[in-house]
Amino acid sequence: MTRALAAALAVALAAALAAAVSACSSSVASPAVTYPPVSAPPAVATSGAVLATRAELVRVLGTRNLVLQDAQVPFRPAEGPALASAPRAVYQVILPDDPGKGQIVVYDFRDAPTAAASGADQAAFLATGPGRVQMPIGARHVIRQLGSTIILYSWNPGGSTDDRADGIPEALRLLGTEIAVPS
Q: Domain count of the chain?
């Protein structure tokens, strides 16, 4: 290779490197565009059906001396398509020894048949590979239908540091109709 060719090649590489570096940066400050995560604010459902379901949750959880409150942090469980697009309200059982657990989600549908179909869709989703990988190994689920609402609670037995957590699924089984998750 001649010196002239080597010099021309070096100049071309330097120019390409300069162009690449300038393309990656901008002299004009532009604000970074960010979007909130999909799970950030839950769609709050405050229909009469959801409020009635909340009252029933308070009642059945009270049989186990458990207290329900509105969720203190954003929460979104693994959801199939039918539940992912439904209005929902997120509640949390107060577990003083494990304050990050105990979330219960109530989904609102236009009628009981739509709720039943959506609950069955969720049960089927949780039994699939994509549904399972979104949950810890050994996770259990309670899906209950109460009128036009679906109640979803997922937990990992022995996964809470608060002994009161064991009473949540027991209490929820007193409510509405079960929708079983296939094994």
A: 1
The reply to whether 76 falls in a domain is yes
- Say how far apart CA 178 and CA 27 lie, in whole Å: 60
Which residues, at least 6 apart from 150, have a Cβ–Cβ distance to it below 8 Å?
A: 83, 86, 106, 107, 109, 115, 118, 119, 122, 143, 144, 179
The residues near 131 (Cβ < 8 Å, ≥ 6 apart) are 78, 80, 125
Residue with tokens 């929820």: 172
User: Is residue 83 included in any domain, yes or no?
Assistant: yes
Q: Locate 172 and state its tokens.
A: 């929820």
Instruction: Report mean pLDDT in 10-residue bins for the chain, 183 residues.
Output: 64 61 51 46 72 97 96 90 93 94 96 97 87 75 96 90 93 96 85
C-beta separation of 149 from 106 below 8 A:
yes
Residue 6 lies in a domain: no
- Max Cα-Cα span within the chain: 90
Query: For position 144, what pLDDT does the model report?
Result: 98
Residue 82 maps to a domain: yes
Query: Domain range for residue 74?
Result: 48-178
pTM, two decimals, is 0.75
Give the pLDDT of residue 157.
86
Q: What is the pLDDT of residue 1?
A: 62
Please count the other Cβ atoms lying within 10 Å of the Cβ belonging to residue 157.
11
